[in-house]
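Private note to self, pasted from the team thread so I don't lose it. Backbone tokens:
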């Protein structure tokens, strides 16, 4: 009985560890996508504003 309880605890530890790993990877991917989106947005938005303001002078 004691041995079974210990193995159950180990299984639970494995489950929580892999769960944490999955969520960490998920947040890494989300943050990377957000960063890329923001980078392109910041790069393109001033150009758009500038064109609206001054036309195609460049």
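Design output:
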């Amino acid at each position: 009985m004691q041995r079974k309880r210990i193995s159950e605890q180990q299984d639970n530890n494995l489950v929580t560890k892999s769960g944490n790993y999955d969520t960490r990877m998920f947040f890494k991917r989300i943050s990377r996508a957000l960063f890329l989106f923001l980078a392109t947005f910041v790069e393109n938005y001033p150009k758009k504003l500038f064109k609206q303001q001054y036309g195609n002078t460049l």
